[in-house]
Amino acid sequence: MENDHPVLIVGGGLNGLTAACLLAHHGVACVLVERHPGTSIQYKFAGISPRSMEIFRSLGLEDEIRANRTGDQQGGGLARGRNLSDPAIQWGGPAWPDASDFSPTQPATCDQHVLEPILRRHAEQLGADIRFATECAAVEQSEGGVRARLRDRTTGTEREITADYLVIADGANGRLREMLGIGRSGVGALQHWMNIIFDDGPAAHHRRQAPDVILRDGPQRFRHPARGRPLAAGAAVFSGQG
Fold first, then answer.
1. Are 161 and 8 in contact, with CB atoms under 8 Å apart?
2. 151, 158 contact by CB (below 8 A)
């Protein structure tokens, strides 16, 4: 058994990795476990708000994130059409407006499969214990902290770990809240999404003004997060030059 870790983080996505970076940055030792073998292989997420960039800036990550940007949502716009070849595209406003009036930094565009490795590397450099291919099979809470059973998904080996605090960052479909009896409220699922990855160019009339987001009239949503990159997002992604 591993005893007396200050913080255990379950979930190695953007929230979990950011938590690990912040804790390690402030000198708080932490262990992060993630059931997947590595960071995300899909884009999933693109835009970083000014507030999030302020946090990454405090960690010294702003320059690296901008150097690895996967698009420019401030340079793009929102468009609505019946499909990708609709000649009557309706253009809306910018995806992210200028933030200089209320923030020292601007929003950024860095897709999740690019941002997560940056956060993981930074957390490890600061001393966080990051363990991928490791799932939390069970957890118990007491007045003194938490006791978790971790399973190595490669070898099947299990071990117990205790921690003073637990950060649950295993996503909307995670099981830890249910294990601990933490309920939810609200209307339930708002949307269901499907990712379709394909490499194709947009219609010629789109190339004069490349959209950042295309909203199809109907249940599907088409998103173009990074021009020239065949990445998945929303229902479909096209990767043409703007």
1. yes
2. yes
